Amino acid sequence: MNQNKFITLKKILEGKTSNNKTLEESDLRVAAVSILIEKDNPDYPVYMIKRADEGKHALEWAFPGGKVENSDNNLKHTATRETNEEIGANLEDFVLWGELDPVMTLGTGWIIQPFIGEIQSESKLIRNEKEVVEIAKIPLFDLIQEKNKRYVSFTTNEKRIDSKAFVYEDKLIWGASARMITQISEILENKINNG
After folding, report:
1. With a threshold of 0.85, does the pTM exceed it?
2. Which of 1, 30, 158, 174 has an alpha carbon 20 to 30 Å from 78's alpha carbon atom?
3. CATH classification of the domain holding 118
4. Residue 194 belongs to some domain of the structure
């Protein structure tokens, strides 16, 4: 069952490009992340990181990635470079299939281009201790089950913000990362409902 979902996701997203107009027209800061699924693990986990205790997104669960640097050729280059820097994944060990739609952070001024792809389970990871507290492998298709969906609410600048969230064991994933996972969930739901 999970293998079918993985194959379906790959078929739909291979070569997919997002609507980058949001990025081009935005005066927000731009970042890119990699959503990597272990292709040879029957649980099909995605790699997530707990960010180091600094900055506005400190200690949040996120996908490896970061801000665009002047030396980056494009956003895909940003995603792969940052993934290598943060979790040490060798560039030869993973392949990015395509793009999800860009996601904005709530109240912190970032727009993020997510890329999705696959990695081998035996890939050697090396955590960047300055930027990453923990690397977790979270089974993707378990995570998107209805029982793991949540909402979180918080106030920023005296404004209430509600965010979709997912919970897995002791991990609460919300904000931009949760909106990326929601896109994956919706892609699969649409495929199941529309054949």
Report:
1. yes
2. 174
3. 3.90.79.10
4. no
